[in-house]
Amino acid sequence: MNDKILILGGGIAGLTAAIALHRKNIDFTVYEAVPEIKAIGSGISLAGNAMKVLEQLQVAEQVKVRGQLITSMIIQDEKGNFISALDTRKFTHKYGMYNVAIHRGALHEVLLGEIPPDRIKTGKKAISFSEKENTVVLRFDDGTEAEGAAVIVADGIHSAIRKQLLPDSTPRYAGYTCWRGIVESTWGIEDQAVETWGTTGRIGYVPIGDNKVYWFACKNAPYQNEHMKRLSREALRKNFEGFAQPVPQIIEQTPEENIIWNDIVDLKPISRFAFNRILLIGDAAHATTPNLGQGACLGIEDAAVVADVLEQQSNPVKAFQIFEHTRLKRVQFIVNTSQRLGKVAQVQHPLLAKMRNALFRLLPDALNERQLKQVLNIAS
Ligand SMILES: Cc1cc2nc3c(=O)[nH]c(=O)nc-3n(C[C@H](O)[C@H](O)[C@H](O)COP(=O)(O)OP(=O)(O)OC[C@H]3O[C@@H](n4cnc5c(N)ncnc54)[C@H](O)[C@@H]3O)c2cc1C
Q: Measuring from atom 48 of ligand 1, which residue has the nearest CA?
């Protein structure tokens, strides 16, 4: 009998799923398109819900050592005036939850280090699948095939397998474009994630350990705009020059080759993740805009849930149905909330921005904390 689970994609969701299956002695192989697995040069925030899973998988300590513990999240206007602030230490004391920001490359190294190398096959780009009575066959662009009892599809927002299952499900543009960078130096920012909402755009920065700061900047723009694509670092700095320091310095001191540009897209929520012996997880299932910093966190949650259901239920078809039932509502909540937050945060009209900031300043801490509890999946 073929019990092997095929995992498609060696991103954060696929690698975490591999670790979760490995911990439960479930047989698996990861198939990844690129010849060498490595992350793009940017940072990532892992919120308490993801860190909790990584703790269960015994990798949280390494992530903490390689990254930076973040204890407050601040939103301010372009002059540096407070809009809202959350001290996440309350969540650490009450629920044992903490946030870590880390270089994506370091996170990938930690995850890869937990998976036996012979369980990962690189240079395997899946182009299609077919089902047999009790197995699934993946076909790769090099002409080879792999057969297993089931497939966990974690090949990202442009998933080839999702396209075969749901041809109408395509990424949708959020209306804003994004630059990301990493810069050496921290400007004394030790454990804060700061987001600045301005009338020429929005910029966030967070230390990621190793004396480095990760930043992202978003501006409203048409989809795949050539001007935005070609914007130089100097032009980007100029766009944010009226912002409180260290914003202009952060951009100025980032080596131009360390700046990555892409439009922000997500996936309109789909109503199914389980397709018989095939399960979509991570961005392949529910890519979200980055406004809540939850995309990868959800993929990490998925990984733990899929390992649990496969341990409890030997029939993958039933296990995947349980997964779908457990996950649909939660991920839809995050995708929709994140999309709405993005619209609010990207308001660039001066008067509307002023009104928004005033309104946010009035929000009671208790409300912000309640919302964060929902995002972190903490039961009331
Ligand atoms: C600007 C920005 C900031 C973000 N910030 C955060 C944050 O702070 N916190 C957070 O939690 N999330 C954040 N996210 C979201 C996060 O990056 C994604 O949710 C996460 O990386 C998705 O992981 P994944 O493994 O599902 O997919 P991916 O990272 O896309 O990985 C898919 C993998 O599958 C491989 N692959 C693709 N096609 C095939 C194929 N046909 N065959 C085989 N392999 C294939 C790819 O090479 C890749 O390795 C952010 C996203 C953006 C755009």
A: 11
Of 273, 310, 326, the residue nearest 18 (C-alpha): 310
Q: What is the pTM of this model?
A: 0.97
Alpha carbon separation from 6 to 95, 147, 316 (Å, rounded) = 34, 8, 12
Give helix 295-312 / helix 12-23 axis angle, nearest 10°.
30
* Any ligand 1 atom below 6 A from CB of 181: no
The tens place of each residue's pLDDT in the chain, 380 residues long, gives 779 999 999 999 999 999 999 999 999 999 999 999 988 889 999 999 999 999 999 999 999 999 999 999 999 999 999 999 989 898 899 999 999 999 999 999 999 999 999 999 999 999 999 999 999 999 999 999 999 999 999 999 999 999 999 999 999 999 999 999 999 988 888 899 999 999 999 999 999 999 999 999 999 999 999 999 999 999 999 999 999 999 999 999 999 999 999 999 999 999 999 999 999 999 999 999 999 999 999 999 999 999 999 999 999 999 999 999 999 999 999 999 999 999 999 999 999 999 999 999 999 888 888 899 999 999 86
Q: How far apart are the first and last CA of the chain?
A: 44
Cβ of residue 176 lying under 6 Å from some atom of ligand 1: no
14 lines ligand 1 (CB under 6 A): yes
Ligand 1 center to residue 157 CA distance, Å?
7
**Torsion sign (Cα): 241, 255, 207, 288:** positive
